[in-house]
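Q: Please design a sequence for this.
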């Protein structure tokens, strides 16, 4: 990435919580693909926000304010570290007031609380998927892991694959069928997620097409507002709230 473009890269100093070593941190604040086409590859690779202490090896995820902009995909994402749909109303109002007069037709604008969420939005856009449906899948996967005793921080969409129907069912996948007397079709697309546990382990798991379609139907029933070009935030807490609304009628 070109370091001559002002505002894109800043350097800060970070102190390790374990050994107290101070090291330099390279922060990418602007991932505008009109100026830096390599910004998308850099984001999806993800190494720049996964910090590692050079002395003791402690690992930690970092985040700072950042703007991702891809005009070709019509996607703009504002990273606001720690922002959460449960208390983001005022922040989104300010962001949308600042947006007045700068609207672009067909542009999808989102807020995100960490770099994993920004990656997820990019992957969803590339796959042509509604990220709200992808969010609604998460409580189903996480609930299953919690029933097995796992403690989950969050989960993020990684991509879609279509397995060979002649192969055995994938152990890590949550399958559902279209009826109680019908077996799942194992050749259907699988929607993959990385589920991050609080111990920093990652569980790679997914759901089949039937589960994904169930969540898409849930979104239709919820009657969410159509996209209007303003900043919106859809995350795990939003998905949990939607499931609760559905269960409570």
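A: Design:
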């Amino acid at each position: 990435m070109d370091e001559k473009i002002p505002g894109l890269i800043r350097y800060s100093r970070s102190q390790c919580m374990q050994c107290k070593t101070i090291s330099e941190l390279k922060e990418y604040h602007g991932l505008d693909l009109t100026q830096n086409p390599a910004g998308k590859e850099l984001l999806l690779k993800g190494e720049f926000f996964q910090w590692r202490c050079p002395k003791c090896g402690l690992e930690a995820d970092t985040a700072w304010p950042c703007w991702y902009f891809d005009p070709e995909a019509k996607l703009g994402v504002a990273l606001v570290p720690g922002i959460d749909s449960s208390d983001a109303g005022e922040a989104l109002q300010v962001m949308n007031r600042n947006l007045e007069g700068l609207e672009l037709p067909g542009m999808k604008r989102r807020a995100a609380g960490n770099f994993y969420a920004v990656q997820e939005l990019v992957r969803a856009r590339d796959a042509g998927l509604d990220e709200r449906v992808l969010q609604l899948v998460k409580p189903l996967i996480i609930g299953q892991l919690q029933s097995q005793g796992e403690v989950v921080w969050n989960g993020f969409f990684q991509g879609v694959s279509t397995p060979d129907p002649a192969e055995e069912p994938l152990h890590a996948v949550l399958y559902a069928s279209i009826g109680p007397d019908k077996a799942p079709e194992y050749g259907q697309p699988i929607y993959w997620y990385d589920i991050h546990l609080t111990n920093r382990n990652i569980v790679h798991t997914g759901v089949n097409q039937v589960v994904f379609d169930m969540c898409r139907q849930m979104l239709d029933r919820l009657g969410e507002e159509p996209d209007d070009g303003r900043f919106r935030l859809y995350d795990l807490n939003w998905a949990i709230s939607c499931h609760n609304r559905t269960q409570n009628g």
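Q: Thanks. Anything notable?
A: The first helix runs from residue 39 to 45. Confidence is low (pLDDT under 50) at residues 1-6.
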